[in-house]
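Notebook, bench 3.
Goal today: get a predicted structure for DUF2167 domain-containing protein from Massilia frigida so we can plan the truncation constructs. The sequence was checked against the plasmid map this morning, with no discrepancies at the termini. Length recorded as 301 residues. Pasting the sequence as submitted so the record is complete.
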Amino acid sequence: MFKHLSLALFLLALGCMTGAHAQAPGDDKAVSVEQFVASLKPQSGKIDLPGGLATLNLPDSFRYLTPADAERVLVQAWGNPPGHKSLGMIVPASGVMGKDGWGVIITYEGDGHVADNEADTIKYDELLKDMQEAVLEENKERKTQGYAAMQLVGWAEKPSYEKTTHKMFWAKELSIAGEAEHSLNYNIRVLGRQGVLVLNAVASMDQIASIRQEMSKVTAFSDFTPGNRYADYNPATDKMAEYGLAALVAGGVASKLGLFGKLLVFLLAFKKLIIIAVGGAGVAIVNFFRGKRGDKVDLGK
């Protein structure tokens, strides 16, 4: 039942650290941020993603982290619970740590071929109102679980679908009660023959100008391989998805399955550290780790 949690649990970060170390009491495996970053093995150039479904043609300003390194960043540096499966992570060449650090988690949802025939008829302002109401309704459950109320402020970037490339992108601005800084949840979906390539980035709203520019590059260099592209769809053999473009934006299958409530229970132990945001084909966790020079990260396992 947690099929779509892989779309969501990738960005639970520690926020601002309150101490000089990020490890469990008694753990002697902590190292400096610099040592942790040096232990990663970022790749450049053309990247064939695991499974051979898609490729990244990275410009010099980006690097790719393998699923193993992405997991290390998410769990050991950013404080997520372990076990999230991804196709890796796109990061700035300047790095993922520090105040302005950010990354794009890559996953794939093989739910079938998503029809784009509604692209010209979706009323995104009305869709936004529905999403905002859903967030407010979900706050009732959030409060019973001990979470602060959350608000979907609006579009940080209104949804846009490129018919020729079959790529869709949008961004949301979110706020949480008691937090002065708003969060930015930026989403890219690349439609393919039998599923959707999912690229999600989370940062703060004060990064919107730079993130918008960088994510336009991510949209351009991410694509399916020949045979797996949208135009390769074969109606005689390939499955159609049970949802369309509007559902990708509004919450997709996860919202239909009621996974928001399940996620609240699943992450109860982290209630002081997280913001849960409706979006994409699932739920996104926001609040980036604000690394400081000299902070320590736990190398863990």
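The longest helix spans residues 124-144. The CA atoms of residues 226 and 232 lie 8 Å apart.
Flagging this for group meeting.
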